[in-house]
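Action item from last week, closing it out:
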Amino acid sequence: MATADDIRLARENAKESQAQFAQRFGVDQSTIHRWETDGPPARGPAGMAIDQILKDMIEKKGGRRTTRAEVAAS
């Protein structure tokens, strides 16, 4: 299950604003802010979509998570 830090790192790695990242999920920017603060939903369609998108992003990085330092350096 994704965490608030996972959401933030994925968005930063994608070099997207909260508003841009929100478009991926069809939600408001305020929802992304809430997910980055309190954590994403654990279940339901949004939770499954988040997990799948994060999984896809990790696979594109060679099967590993990107660290905050790597995001800052890119």
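Closing note: Helices lie at 4-13, 18-25, 29-38, 44-60, 68-73.
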